[in-house]
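Worked example 2:
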Amino acid sequence: QGQLVESGGGLVQPGGSLRVSCAASGFTFRSYTMSWYRQAPGKERDFVASISITGGIRNYADSAKGRFTISRDNAKNTVYLQMNSLKPEDTAVYLCRGAGVWGQGTHVTVSS
């Protein structure tokens, strides 16, 4: 059974940076596209970014372009989301997805 565990969330000031991670287990990580989503309180879950199996193709939501970078380390079975120039509207639970599995999410709060 596949499992995804996110970490790295927290409180950051506007304009700051944060990197969240997602560790995979129970499936062949290197064979799957991985994605990040986010869900703000009272809102739907939205796509943030995805990365292909070798990392050569990356897609971003308009809200993430130019500020967020998705990456992966297939040797560590981990996908990352580097978030820069954070805004209060980036506050959400950030969840990763891959191989049909969702993680439990990590909370990111952007506030002064």
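DSSP finds no helices and eleven strands in the chain. The mean pLDDT is 97.
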